[in-house]
Amino acid sequence: MAAPDDFQAEIEINDILRIDVSSMNEELAAPFQLNINSQSSGGGSNNAALTGYLVDSDGNINFPVLGELHVAGKSREELQEELSTELREKYLKDAVVRVRIVNFKVTVMGETGSQVIDVTDERISVPQAIAMSGDISYDGKRDKILVIRQENEELKYEILDLTSVDIFQNPFYYLKQNDIVYVEPTYRKVKSAGFITSWQGLVSIVTTAFSLFVLFNNI
Question: What is the DSSP pairing of strand 60-63 with strand 115-118?
């Protein structure tokens, strides 16, 4: 398992990729460009993410000229290198390829407020996500940060302790697409609010929230 410092997000099913191909000869590069203008002419700026390549349920995209390509499980850099190599060998000797995951987002909930964070550089840690959502309130537990992740249709959970140096070696330290970060309230906060006090109950609530989040994002 790669150390957190080596983390690279992998392309997943339902990701939207922006792939730009450039060359000194723009006419030769044009067939490899997605026609963004025609797709976005009626949708406005809010639909910018929809002008990319949607990774289908088999992990493939349909790329101009090259046809169907399997991209799921590859990092952005790996796909860039593969496309660059193929285009240079067959079509464009000076091809430059740039790949971005344009719908990379994570959700932060609990004693930080609730916020969906768009990640532009495809690399965000748990502390960064928490800081961007307003930091942990006085009533939040810094030693019990729940990260919920869906991998291959399976929900995975991990508890992180922000007060421990071991957090930097945890594979959940860097977040993946659609991860949920939940900051648990202290016992005092839960009791004063009159909510259930069991850990199982809290997990049940968060799991339900996650299921709804996945459902609405797959519609």
Answer: unpaired
Determine which helix (DSSP H) or strand (DSSP E) holds 78, and give its type and residue range: helix 76-90
Residues paired with 185 in a beta bridge: 140
Distance between CA atoms of 139 and 5, rounded to whole angstroms? 31
CA distance 197 to 185: 10
Residues 6+ apart with CB under 8 A from 43: 50
CA dihedral over 31, 34, 39, 40, signed as positive or negative: negative
Confidence tier at 186 by pLDDT (50, 70, 90): confident
More confident residue, 88 or 111: 88
79-109 core/surface letters (b: 16 or more CB in 10 A; e: else)? bbeebbebbeeebbeebebebbbbbbbbbbb
pTM of this structure:
0.73
CA distance 26 to 122: 28
Which whole-number Å values give the CA distances from 157 to 49, 131, 137, 148, 171, in the listed order? 29, 21, 22, 5, 11
CA dihedral 4, 5, 7, 8 (to 10 degrees): 170
What do you get for the CA distance between the two ends of the chain, in Å? 33
CA atoms of 215 and 219, how far apart (whole Å): 6
